Amino acid sequence: MDFGLSDEQLALQETARRFAQGEIAPIAAKYDESGEFPREVIKQAWELGLSSTCIGEAYGGVGLSVLDSCLITEELAWGCSGITTSIMCNDLGLMPIAIAGSDAQKEHWLSACARDFKMISFCLSEPEAGSDVAGLQLLAEKDGDDYVLNGTKAWITNGGVADLYTVFATLDRASRHKGLCAFIVPSDTPGITPGKKEDKMGQRASDTRVIHFDNVRIPADQRLGQEGEGFKVAMRTLDRTRPPIGALATGIARRALEESVAYAKERKAFGFPIAGFQAVQFMLADMAKDTEAARLLTLQSAWAVDQGLRASKLSSFAKCTATDTAMKVTTDAVQVFGGNGYTKEYPVEKLMRDAKLMQIYEGTNQIQRLVIARELLKE
Ligand code: CAA
To answer: Is this structure's pTM higher than 0.85?
Structure first.
């Protein structure tokens, strides 16, 4: 067992750290306030090789391992998790192509996304099917060599700004998971209409929308894998993308811890810095140990994915533990800051709002516990 990072990994981490400090953190509050989409900074991240990182070198990409992508995600999320969600969602959207695409599809679509800056979305959730993937309703009807898609997706990250979607649809609703199929869908395909941007509590820089599909015609060569394989493509994707969600949450928690330590040394009560009081010290100690534990579990799950192991349980451990940790640590950070923490003048209220989403997206933490329990009982 080796907990050290290679020189390449340290350099990658340093690149992400500098980018987060220099380009993301300074604009985080502005985009949180306005809810605008920070396209330019995301493009800069892509130019540095920090976005769409799952595209292999054979297709012109950087081909990072899941562990490497976790290292950079924690750094970026330290700067702003809303902006980082937009950056990382490109990998979520591309992962089904990397996992299930034919050589020709990879050559065409992954190369295009490595050559030019593109935003990508993963269109799985629906208004009536968030946790229950097998119950999704968006219908794909066969028409000659094409498929015609009709229905609505919801909570789609990058929904209004994406150039490309990976869309999960059902060929037969009664067949539940056995009827699902995945498609590669350029966002300018006729019949696609994004709804209005959701006015979210946190991660406000990320663009989240409903997407309507109205007779959207997709040629068969844009189908990913075989008919009926869509559910497993989605699950295999999430196994790979939940460790980076753990890293995103770890980045939020680390930022909250650092802000709290600095504040506790400055802020005085009863004539002394509050860092001198055991009540505050114990909170800081818990924040530090829980953040470290979240990081270790995240990196272990990423390592397992990179070894080619089926990592559903570990990925759910990481996603669930790290995001619950981010929620707890950011809530405690607001407590350490007291009344100041509850105002927008200080950075921790944003961290707390941002952390809440982490317990919900990429599978609620209730779903993570369900995955863990099922794997446990199967063993
Ligand atoms: N890998 C491969 N195959 C898998 C698998 C995995 N991880 N998990 C399940 N399967 C297989 C099963 O073995 C089974 O196969 P057979 O038919 O051959 O027996 C089949 O898939 C069906 O599995 P289940 O019976 O377990 O399916 P289920 O309907 O009970 O649902 C679930 C399982 C875990 C609840 C699943 O629906 C789930 O993960 N839901 C959460 C969805 C989610 O995470 N959504 C996030 C959206 S993305 C997002 O939020 C991104 C963003 O905005 C940033």
So the answer is: yes
